[in-house]
Write a structure and sequence with these properties.
about 425 residues; alpha/beta; TIM Barrel; 3 domains; eight-stranded parallel β-barrel; 20 helices; globular
Amino acid sequence: MSITADKIDSAIERAIFAPEEEVRQQHRRDIRALAASLGVYPASIQGLYEAAGKGLYQNKTVPAINLRGLTYQSARAVFRAALANKVGAFIFEIARSEIGYTKQSPAEYTSCVLAAAIKEGFKGPVFVQGDHYQVNAGKYGADPGKELAAIEALVRESVEAGFFNIDIDASTVVDLGQESLEKQQERNYTITAGMTRFIRGMEPKGSGVSVGGEIGEVGGRNSTVEDLRAFMTGYRKIMGAGVKGISKISVQPGTPHGGVVLPDGSLAKVSVDFKVLEELSRVAREDYGMAGAVQHGASTLPEEAFSLFPKAGTAEVHLATGFQNIIYDSAHFPGDLTDKIAARLVNNYSNEAKKGETREQFLYKTRKKAFGDFKREIWDLPPDSVRAIGETLEARFSLLFRELNVVNTVELVAKHVAGP
């Protein structure tokens, strides 16, 4: 190990931007080794979720935080908020699509998170998750084997990088045209079971991987208890006895990813059907031993909504776009860079604009891609800007931790999550 904690800033920068692949890989290995020596390690949240399934704790919703850009600096803000509020139950995650357009490999993402933990003095398990490892319906229709092999390759790469939590999303191939609910969910539960078995066959000994499934595509029709039962009946038949199944189930209770964008670029108010979440979470726990239901697309909801998730027994909530908005909309984000990003988006992605969409709507929906296209420029933001943005993010993370009722969960996590 060739780095020390006082050199972590330069080490993570080299792990991301060194021109030579081997140099980047070496710095990532060094960061992970240093983290382990300091008591910081990637972990599976499986034990905690099994405890929820047994009723050993209630009314705590684990935030799963997607960091698309300024990842190291934003993760530092997460850890500061966690330390201040004694939070152990929180997840860092990145989706299959985000890995692509933000240009962050799993190994790079884990390195940023662990480096941030080192920098802020956090110790203990760190939960890193592959979010929405999603089946592309079009590619699956053209060549199912090729699409599933691509997801398996990503899963393997992710687990090797320390992602010990993986969400498989085959809800995209649910066929609502089928007459019975089980037939509608058949491809979904078949793929999810196959991926679960694949993960069980290659997960690290003694660590394990927490696997999640999904029954309703986010942005589609609301999920029902009948959908859940149909999915789980088929899933369990394929899994059989003796193989650990999924620990949670993602559902659709009324929110789209990123919110609904109005013509002026602002967000419309979106309501979540908390009765759907409450009933699905209850059935998931009581009938199937899972932690409960998972809510996606929540970061742009109004503040008063977040306290309702733990009251509804929601196991986990996924948060992404709201943090992106804090970065881009900050008064401390350079105006000239904002203009450059807008020009590049119009030049490179105008073919993605929908008919009747305003410029403001287009820019809001596509600016997430600038985290990859302007990766170096965003990393090089003035220190004062990074500090101010980080303080705003930290305040937001603290609020979410409080509202989701995960304050003072360090001991709860230590009780149910095994060490390395």
